[in-house]
Amino acid sequence: MHMKKIIADLQGLGVTPSDTLLVHSSLKSLGRIEGGAITVIQSLIAALPKGNLLMPTLTYEYVTKDSPRFSSATTPSCVGLIPETFRKYPGVVRSIHPTHSVCAYGVNAAEITANHHLDRTPVGENSPFRQLLKYNGKILMLGCGLRPNTSMHGVEETAKAPYVLQSTPTKLYVDDEAVFHYKHNFSNGGITQRYDRVAEVYEIKKGKILDADVYIMEAKALWAAASAKMTANPYFFVDMPQ
């Protein structure tokens, strides 16, 4: 029953079978679901039979200067139970990045995730977050509000926001290969991310999936609106320390 309702709710939000959909999520926001995270994942996959399902499987809490090793096969995600369950789901592929990997399932999953290992920033040009634009993808914020929108880091990196990256790279290990990555500067700089402000520059469609409040955005349109705002005000999407 929950699966049918989730699929119907997705369709009501305008999700089509051939969409490429990037999902940020909170399982508890949906209410009690028989089957839990697996039911949510299977519902999302069923709604996209000709498309692609993407989820961030970020590891920045686990892969640090003091604990610098990332394994694409075993390092868990730190952004919730749904993406961590998705990471281990049959047929899912994971992009190779020490802190900002993305998992994908679907007809283009392999190519969307293929070249992330070439980047040296969290959301570089080969990141699946940016690849989403090429596939006319959508971003679904499933019960988690607007703030944890990792795609906004790509906007910031493209705009060369003065606050977004550390000035020197960190030595990390990706499947035992040493790499130097420029990490985000937010925690070191005391900067607060305010990606909820996208609602001030882009008209976001809002709805419900089960008990969860959800937002859905066209990635290209969001990117264009947010980039234009950052041209006018590079600090619009953050609160700087006083």
What does this structure look like?
The protein has 242 residues and is of the alpha/beta class. It has one domain (2-231). 28% of the residues lie in helices and 21% in strands. It has helices at residues 2-12, 36-46, 81-87, 109-113, 128-134, 151-158, 186-189, 219-232; strands at 20-25, 52-56, 69-70, 93-94, 102-106, 138-142, 170-174, 177-181, 192-193, 205-209, 212-218, 238-239. The longest helix is centred in the last third of the chain and has 14 residues, at 219-232.
Structure, briefly:
By secondary structure, the protein is α/β, with parallel strands linked by helices. The protein has helices spanning 2-12, 36-46, 81-87, 109-113, 128-134, 151-158, 186-189, 219-232; strands at residues 20-25, 52-56, 69-70, 93-94, 102-106, 138-142, 170-174, 177-181, 192-193, 205-209, 212-218, 238-239.
Query: What is the distance, rounded to the nearest whole angstrom, between the alpha carbons of the first and last residues?
Result: 50 Å
What are the segments in which pLDDT stays under 50 over at least 5 consecutive residues?
A: none
Structural class by helix and strand composition: alpha/beta
Helix content: 25-40%
**SSE sequence, one letter per element:** HEHEEHEEHHEHEEHEEEHE
Write the layout of secondary structure elements.
Blueprint: H1 2-12, E1 20-25, H2 36-46, E2 52-56, E3 69-70, H3 81-87, E4 93-94, E5 102-106, H4 109-113, H5 128-134, E6 138-142, H6 151-158, E7 170-174, E8 177-181, H7 186-189, E9 192-193, E10 205-209, E11 212-218, H8 219-232, E12 238-239
Parallel strand pairs: 1-2, 1-6, 3-7
Antiparallel strand pairs: 2-5, 4-5, 6-11, 7-8, 9-12, 10-11
Helix pairs in contact: 1-2, 2-3, 6-8
